[in-house]
Write a structure and sequence with these properties.
Elements (H helix, E strand, L loop, with lengths): L24 E4 L2 E9 L4 E8 L8 E3 L3 E7 L2 E3 L5 E2 L4 E4 L4 E2 L1 E3 L7 E8 L2 E4 L5 E5 L1 H14 L11
Antiparallel strand pairs: 1-2, 2-3, 3-11, 4-9, 4-12, 5-8, 5-11, 6-7, 6-10, 12-13
């Protein structure tokens, strides 16, 4: 077996997290998540999220771009006809407003990776901002939920 080359000392190392290294915790009813990476300075947060069938997430507006990749299940935005299924990739531009809905007839959890820049501005029925979820808040929420569940501080990538 060939020797594994070592990284050059002046070249930044890559970061790796296996799925078992980061606990799954509750975000809201019917939604579990892992915070994979956060960079508060740049407003970046990367999450893997699992949704139960039939879950609808509060309508929200994004202040930055969102990149989403679906690995299981099916979901859509109530405002649009497209259905995201395993292998679907979705780009959301800054300013996008929508309501995420997981199809009720799913036989498995819907599993989605999201890379988000900026904040989710959660909107009330009149379109006014009710709550804000950004990189700093999601990190605090994840660490708090991990602590409540008895997990030690999770090794979230902070780069």
């Amino acid at each position: 077996m060939a020797a594994v080359p070592k990284p050059e000392p002046h070249v930044p190392a890559s970061f790796h997290r296996g799925t078992e290294e980061l606990p799954w915790v509750t975000l809201t009813d019917g939604v579990l998540f892992q915070l994979l990476q956060v960079n508060i300075e740049f407003g970046l947060w990367v999450v893997r999220t699992k949704f139960d069938a039939g879950v609808t997430i509060q309508r929200h507006r994004h202040t930055g771009e969102v990149y989403a990749y679906t690995t299981a299940g099916a979901w859509r935005y109530l405002e649009y006809p497209d259905i995201n299924r395993p292998g679907s990739y979705l780009f959301e531009p800054s300013g996008a407003v929508h309501t995420l809905h997981v199809l009720a007839d799913n036989t498995e959890q819907t599993d989605i990776f999201f890379a988000i820049r900026g904040a989710n501005l959660n909107l009330d029925d009149d379109g006014k901002v009710e709550t804000v979820l950004d990189a700093g808040r999601i990190l605090r929420l994840y660490e708090d939920e991990c602590a409540k569940a008895g997990f030690s501080t999770p090794p979230v990538i902070r780069a």
